[in-house]
Amino acid sequence: MLVMKYCTNISSVSAQCIRSLTSQQEPLKKGDMPIKMENPYKTPPKTCILCNITVDFKNVQLLSQFISPHTGRIYGRHITGLCGRKQKEVSKAIKKARSMGFMSVTLKDPQFIKDPDICGIKHFE
User: Fold this and answer.
1) Of all residues in the chain, what percent carry a pLDDT higher than 70?
2) Range of 70's domain?
3) Is 23 part of any domain?
4) What is the CATH number of the domain that holds 67?
5) In a domain, 86, yes or no
6) How many folded domains does the chain comprise?
7) Which long-range contacts (CB under 8 A, 24 or more apart) does 47-54 make?
8) Which of 6, 64, 86, 99 has the most crowded Cβ, counting Cβ within 10 A?
9) Alpha-carbon gap, residue 77 to 49, rounded angstroms
10) In sequence order, what are the residues at sequence separation of 6 or more whose Cβ sits closer than 8 angstroms to the Cβ of residue 86?
């Protein structure tokens, strides 16, 4: 009997709580709605670093950044991060700069790059 009384008491209390919750809700106002905004944690899209720069074969300092100092080969897109159009422009500019004499074509073999200076001659750059 005590259990039945307890169960009916719980059901009446829970019904009162539900009624009080529904009666306390007010209609939503415009100020209460969440503000639409972009995801602050979204990673920025990858962009080409040369898309707003004109590639010229006479700009050797820029072009030398896309060439391996050990082998002299042009780095690929997966290493440079350039878009396809700019990668093609850079490789054409490097080839043109080499043919015009702005950039060196011959490079040391990788095993001889760290040779010690024998004569002690200092080259000023």
Assistant:
1) 61
2) 60-111
3) no
4) 4.10.640.10
5) yes
6) 1
7) 48/81, 48/82, 48/83, 48/86, 49/81, 49/82, 50/82, 50/86, 50/89, 50/90, 51/83, 51/86
8) 86
9) 12
10) 48, 50, 51, 55
Note whether residue 3 is domain-resident: no
Cα distances from 94 to residues 66, 70, 98, 109, in angstroms, run 9, 16, 6, 20
**Cα atoms in the 13 Å half-sphere on the side-chain side of 80:** 25
CB 89 within 8 A of CB 55: yes
Q: What is the pTM of this model?
A: 0.55
Rounded to whole angstroms, how far apart are CA atoms 29 and 63?
Answer: 60
Token pair of 14 as six digits: 């829970």
Segment 36-92, tens digit of pLDDT:
899 989 998 888 889 999 999 999 999 999 998 877 889 999 888 899 999 999 999
How many angstroms separate the CA atoms of 94 and 99, rounded? 9
pLDDT class of 105 with cuts at 50, 70, 90? confident
Rounded to whole angstroms, the Cα distance separating 50 from 47 reads 9
Q: Which string of DSSP letters, residue by residue, matches 29-47?
A: PGGGSPPP---TTPPPPP-
